[in-house]
Amino acid sequence: MSISLAVLEEVVREAGSIALAYFKDLKNVEVKQKSPRDFVTAADVAVEDFLKETLTRKYPEYGFWGEEGGQSANQTNRWIVDPIDGTHSFAKGQYFWGISVALEIDQELMMGAVYAPALNDYYCAEKGKGAWKNGQPITVSSETSLADGMVGTGFACLRSYLEDNNLARFGRIAQNTTGQRRFGSAAVDLCLVADGQLDAFWEQELNLYDVAAGALIAREAGATVTDFKGNEGLFPKQVLVTNGKILGQILPLM
Ligand code: 2AM
Ligand code: CA
Fold first, then answer.
1. Which of 12, 142, 182, 223 sits most deeply, having the most CB atoms within 10 A of its CB?
2. What atom of ligand 1 comes closest to residue 34's alpha carbon?
3. How far is residue 177's CA from residue 44's CA, in Å, rounded to a whole number?
4. What's the half-sphere exposure (Cβ side, CA atoms, 13 Å) at 104?
5. CA of 214 to the centre of ligand 1 (A)
6. How far, in Å, is the centroid of ligand 1 from the Cα of 52?
7. Is residue 68 within 6 Å of ligand 1 at its C-beta?
C-alpha cells in the first residue's frame, strides 16, 4: 500500500479509539510501575500491539520500534511509536496525552502524527510539505519577546540519580517569561509549539519515541529544534523547540 498522511491518519485515529475506550473506563485499568516514576497501563500495550500489527501488515517494508518493547528486525526504515505519551496524565484521567507515530527513513523523519484523543486534536506533518491540526495548516507563534512569551517544560529528568533535574533552569526561565505551563506529554507539547499555543518548550532525558513525531510537526510548522546550546537537530536527552524568534533570548538561560 502506498503511504500517505490519509492512511496514517486512519490507523492512528483507530489507535486513539482503543485508547479512549480504556480512558473512559479508568477504574478498571491497572497501572503498573516499570520503574520509579515510569508507568504503563493495559492501554499502552493494547495501542502498541494494534499499531505494530497494523503498520507492519500494511507496510512490510518498514520496521517497528515501540516504547513498550515492540521492536522488529528492520531498524533502518521504521515506525517510531509511543503508544501513549503522557501515561501518568492518562492514568489520572487528565487530558494531555497522545499517541505518537513517526516514520523514519535512512535516519530522516518523513512523516509524523500525534493524536490527543481526549482533546480531540489530531496533528500531522510530512517532511517538506507542512504541518496540520485537524486538517488545517498550522504555524508557530509570531511572538518576538521571551518576556511576553508562554513556555512549557517537563520533568522526565526529575529522577534522583540525575544531577541536572531542570529545576534551576525552570526557575531562570520562568522569571523571564509571562506564562509557564507543564502539561505532561512531550509529544503533545511539541505540537503546542507547532500550533503557536506555546512559544517554546524544552525537556531533558526523553527518548526518541517521545519526540520524533512532534519534532517533525514542529519543524514543518516553522519551529527550530535544537539542543540547549542551539545546535540544530533532534537530541532526545536535550530538546529545545521554539518559534525561532525567541531562540536567541532563551538560549543564554538554558
Ligand atoms: P511517557 O508518558 O511516554 O513515559 C513528561 O515529562 C514526559 O516525560 C512524557 O513525554 C513522558 O513520556 C516522559 N517520561 C516519563 N517518564 C520517563 C522516564 N522514566 N524516562 C524517559 N521519559 C519519561
Ligand atoms: Ca509512553
1. 223
2. 19
3. 35
4. 24
5. 14
6. 21
7. no
Q: Is the pLDDT of residue 70 over 80?
A: no
Q: How far are the Cα atoms of 115, 172, 173, 228, 237 from residue 204, in angstroms, in the given order?
A: 22, 16, 15, 9, 5
Among protein residues, the one whose CA lies closest to atom 22 of ligand 1: 206
Q: Domains in the chain, please, with CATH?
A: 5-137 (3.30.540.10), 146-253 (3.40.190.80)
Average pLDDT, integer, range 43-60: 96
Q: Which residues of 214-225 are buried (b: 16+ CB within 10 A; e: fewer)?
A: bbbbbbbbbbbb
In the prediction, which pLDDT does 14 show? 98
- In this prediction, residue 38 has a pLDDT band, given cuts at 50, 70 and 90, of confident
233 CB burial (10 A radius; 0-12, 13-18, 19+): exposed
Nearest CA to ligand 1 atom 15: 156
- Cβ of 38 closer than 6 Å to ligand 1, yes or no, is yes
Q: Is the CB of 104 within 6 Å of ligand 1? A: no
Q: How far apart are CA 5 and CA 220, in angstroms?
A: 14
Is 85 close to ligand 1, i.e. is its CB under 6 Å away? yes
d(CA 48, CA 42): 10
